[in-house]
Amino acid sequence: QVQLVESGGGWAQPGGSLRLSCAASGFTFSSYSMNWYRQAPRKERELVAVIGSSGKSTHYADSVKGRFTISRDNAKNTVYLQMNSLKPEDTAVYYCWGFGSWGQGTEVIVSS
Minimal CB count within 10 Å: which of 13, 27, 59, 83? Predict the structure, then answer.
């Protein structure tokens, strides 16, 4: 059974940082790319970042490029999203996706 469990969300001030984690199980994690998505209130879910199976290739939405960094630790079956220089418009529920499955999401609120 595939499981993706996100953690690390919370509240941050504009300009602040948060690191999200997604622990995966139930599939060969190191063989698959992993994605982070987010869904803001009253908006559609959008792709934030993608990382290849080895971690060497990454892709970012223009809105987060230069501020967010996706990484992974295949020994720990975990993918991360380091979010710096946070803006109020980054407020959303962040979801991990991999092997056709979604995590439950973790909420990020950026507000002063």
Answer: 13
State CA 1 to chain mean position distance: 21
Return the C-alpha torsion angle 13, 42, 35, 108, nearest 10: 20
Model confidence over 1-45: pLDDT tens digits? 999 999 999 999 999 999 999 999 999 999 999 999 999 999 999
* pLDDT value for 92: 98
User: Hey, how many other C-beta atoms are within 10 angstroms of the C-beta on 67?
Assistant: 15
Tokens for 105, please give them: 């999401």
Kindly tell me the burial class for residue 45, based on how many C-beta atoms sit within 10 Å of its own C-beta (0-12, 13-18, 19 or more): middle
